[in-house]
């Protein structure tokens, strides 16, 4: 097959691994810098150009689209979809999953376990917002944050009030969430491909920190999931419409709760912690599922 990886940088661990795995399985593979792709969108024969040339059609596209380029990246992917290429994750599903509020609403409607969560922008009653998640301690999250930036633990009602007041002045969207204390500073990343969790790791925050992000000094190890955790992760991925995703869970005393579903999960941490060849499984999935002109939405909707 002819496969393209949409990625800003061919040197990134995940991109390199996917290229290696595709080549090892006998495919022709090219890394395209998402932002350098440009397109003729008005033509009946959609095309994508790169480095001064019209690209020959691809059988499959592996989107590795960073959060900061979601808008343009989704448009490029949609163009490839309209040309008949099979997207590992569809543009519509990526856009959906990047909208945290929309994602949580979709997951809640499907009855998937979530931490008690409120969202707000300029709430006119801080006290009532705090009550919505059963009071302090609680977690506040700025919607734009990644890698744990903008995630704050407010241990007391007073602290929660002052952070909410500060967020209100920022004119930002934010989440107020029940603090899952019993998770003990650890969370679970389940890597889902199709209908299966193919690898799972537990990340543990460093001493004195409740955020387990590896970028914040957290450590990762292999973990065995319970059947309930597995089915929660798979259902969350399916509801988001993602073929490949990283589902982040917390172990709460009311069962597994989903924090987030990532559409471009990093392979580095999870391959290292679990010893699984996730890149190879991704390519295998593409081989089994790629069909021309198969995108459910064909870029519509
Ligand atoms: P980001 O997307 O910026 O990484 P997250 O929402 O994943 O932010 O939060 C970062 C980390 O903080 C999580 O990995 C988890 O360890 C911890 N955390 C987040 N929300 C909660 C919560 N409601 N209860 C307990 N810990 C949490």
Q: Round the mean pLDDT to the nearest integer and report it.
A: 94
Which ions and ligands are bound to the chains?
A: adenosine-5'-diphosphate
Number of strands: 16
CATH structural fold name of the largest domain? D-amino Acid Aminotransferase, Chain A, domain 1
Taken as a percent bin, the fraction of beta residues is 25-35%
User: End-to-end distance, in Å?
Assistant: 28 Å
Write the CATH architecture name of the largest domain: 2-Layer Sandwich
Query: What is the succession of H and E elements?
Result: EHEEEEEHEHHEHEEHEEEEHEEHH
CATH level-1 class of the largest domain: Alpha Beta
Quickly count the domains: 3
Number of helices: 9
Rg (CA only): 20 Å
> What is the CATH superfamily label of the largest domain?
ATP-grasp fold, B domain
Structural class: alpha+beta
- Outline type: globular
Widest β-sheet, arrangement of strands: 14-13-12-15-16
Helix percentage range: 25-40%
Spans where pLDDT lies below 50 across 5 or more residues: none
Largest sheet: 5 strands, antiparallel
Q: What does the model show?
A:
This protein is α+β, with helices and mostly antiparallel strands and 301 residues long. It has 3 domains: 2-96, 3-Layer(aba) Sandwich (Rossmann fold), CATH 3.40.50.20; 99-112 and 182-287, 2-Layer Sandwich (D-amino Acid Aminotransferase, Chain A, domain 1); 117-179, Dna Ligase, domain 1 (2-Layer Sandwich). Helix content is 32%, strand content 27%. The protein is built from 9 helices and 16 strands. The strands form 4 sheets. A 5-stranded antiparallel beta sheet has the order 14-13-12-15-16, sandwiched between helices. It has a 4-stranded parallel beta sheet with strand order 2-1-6-7, with helices on both faces. Strands 8-11-9-10 form a 4-stranded antiparallel beta sheet, covered by helices on one side. The radius of gyration is 20 Å and the shape is globular. It starts with a strand and ends in a 12-residue tail after the last helix. Bound molecules: adenosine-5'-diphosphate. Adenosine-5'-diphosphate binds next to strand 9, strand 11, strand 15 and strand 16.
């Amino acid at each position: 097959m002819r496969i393209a990886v949409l990625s800003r940088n061919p040197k990134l661990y995940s991109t390199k691994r996917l290229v290696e795995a595709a080549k090892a399985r006998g495919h022709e593979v090219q890394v395209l810098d998402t932002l350098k792709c440009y397109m003729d969108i008005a033509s009946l024969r959609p095309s994508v150009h790169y480095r001064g040339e019209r690209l020959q059609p691809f059988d499959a596209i592996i989107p590795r689209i960073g959060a900061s380029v979601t808008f343009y990246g989704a448009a490029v992917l949609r163009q490839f979809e309209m040309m008949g290429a099979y997207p590992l994750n569809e543009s519509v599903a990526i856009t959906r999953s990047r909208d945290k509020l929309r994602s949580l609403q979709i997951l809640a409607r499907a009855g998937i376990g979530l931490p008690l969560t409120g969202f707000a922008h300029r709430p006119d009653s801080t006290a009532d917002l705090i009550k919505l998640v059963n009071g302090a301690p609680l977690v506040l999250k700025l919607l734009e944050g990644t890698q744990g930036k903008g995630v704050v633990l407010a241990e007391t009602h007073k602290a929660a009030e002052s952070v909410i007041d500060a967020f209100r002045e920022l004119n930002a969207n934010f989440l107020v969430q029940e603090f899952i204390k019993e998770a003990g500073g650890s969370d679970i990343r389940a890597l889902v491909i199709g209908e299966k969790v193919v690898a799972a790791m537990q990340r543990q925050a460093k001493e004195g920190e409740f955020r387990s992000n590896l970028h914040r000094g957290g450590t990762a190890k292999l973990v065995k999931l319970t059947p309930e955790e597995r089915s929660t992760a798979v259902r969350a991925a399916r509801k988001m419409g993602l073929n490949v995703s990283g589902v982040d869970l917390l172990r709460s005393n009311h069962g597994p709760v989903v924090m987030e579903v990532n559409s471009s999960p990093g392979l580095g941490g999870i391959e290292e912690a679990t010893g699984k060849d996730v890149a190879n499984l991704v390519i295998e999935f593409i081989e089994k599922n790629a069909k021309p002109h198969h995108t459910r939405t064909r870029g519509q909707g």
